[in-house]
Amino acid sequence: MALMFLNGGAMRGGPLHDELRGAPLVAVARTAPRYRYFSVGDRFPAMHGVERGGGSVVGEVYDVPLAVLRDHLVPAEPPELELGVVELADGAACLATVLRRSAVDGPDLVDITEYGDWRTYCESRGLRGR
Asked: Boundaries of each Allophanate hydrolase C-terminal domain copy (predicted)?
């Protein structure tokens, strides 16, 4: 089992939530304020660690079996994301999907760090089912 921080479509009610195969929710949490947060073409969110100018991101932490990560959750993620480790607000380390370095300058990135929450951003834009 591995603790996995989710901040987009795999959260409760999201289109990828079933990919968790029933993994239990451990906590609703925030990251440490060390991340720029992006909307990638209004399709999904992506975090990128920074040394300055970062914010905190809202998400959910799940206790996910490694086989579920390998066989279901990670393959369902878009190619712009990769598995990484993030710091939570309480200082704990947690797995998460993060923006690949090669995608940081992508033309369809919109900085949504001020929102810090994918659902809040989607609601502000009238985006449904994200």
From this structure: 4-122
